[in-house]
Design goal:
This protein has 156 residues and is of the alpha+beta class. The chain has helices at residues 3-27, 38-48, 78-84, 89-95, and strands at residues 34-35, 55-57, 68-72, 104-110, 113-120, 137-138, 143-145. The strands form two sheets. A five-stranded mixed sheet has the order 1-5-4-3-6, with helices on one face. A two-stranded antiparallel ribbon has the order 2-7. β4 (104-110) and β5 form a beta hairpin.
Length: 156
């Protein structure tokens, strides 16, 4: 086998490997800051520890610094959010899930960079509906009032 043929085989192999990595990244986000729902669990705990009509300020709950957040509701378009967050095609697929069917996906940013992301399966919080085009929720606006705690939901 000639060197030229061997070179072509190596280039073809590298192209196939790269396309495989891009596909995997598009299906499963490679998010180093993706965690279990510790932020959402802390929000639920705060709700149960406060009386109805108490104000909950999300900036007091997070153990990380953030400027704004996005809430991906189930079946939300990843491309719409990536556009709103100015993420390129590849980075979008590496950082955000292709889709999800249960709960909300919360993405927190600091200075335009993603610092935390998690799935929230909280049944106690009605996160804001997806706005079109998607818009961030600023830290100073991220508060709500406890309305009601359903008796059928045990405390966390």
């Amino acid at each position: 086998m000639s060197k030229r043929a061997l070179w072509k085989i190596c280039v073809l192999f590298l192209l196939l490997a790269a396309s495989g990595l891009i596909y995997v990244a598009s299906q499963h986000p490679l998010v180093p800051y993706f965690t279990t729902a510790k932020f959402s669990a802390a929000v639920d705990q705060r709700i149960w520890n406060n009386p109805p009509r108490a104000d909950i300020d999300l900036k007091d709950i997070a153990d990380f610094e953030w400027d704004d957040m996005f809430v991906f509701t189930p079946y939300a378009s990843r491309d719409a959010y990536c556009g709103a967050m100015s993420l390129g095609w590849l980075r979008c697929r590496m950082l955000l899930p292709a889709h999800h069917e249960v709960g909300n996906y919360l993405v927190f940013r600091r200075n335009g960079e993603i610092v935390h992301a998690e799935f929230s399966r909280s049944r106690l919080v009605n996160w804001p509906e997806t706005r079109q085009p998607p818009a961030p929720i600023r830290r100073e606006d991220a508060r709500f009032t406890v309305q009601d705690r359903t008796a059928s939901m045990p405390p966390p």
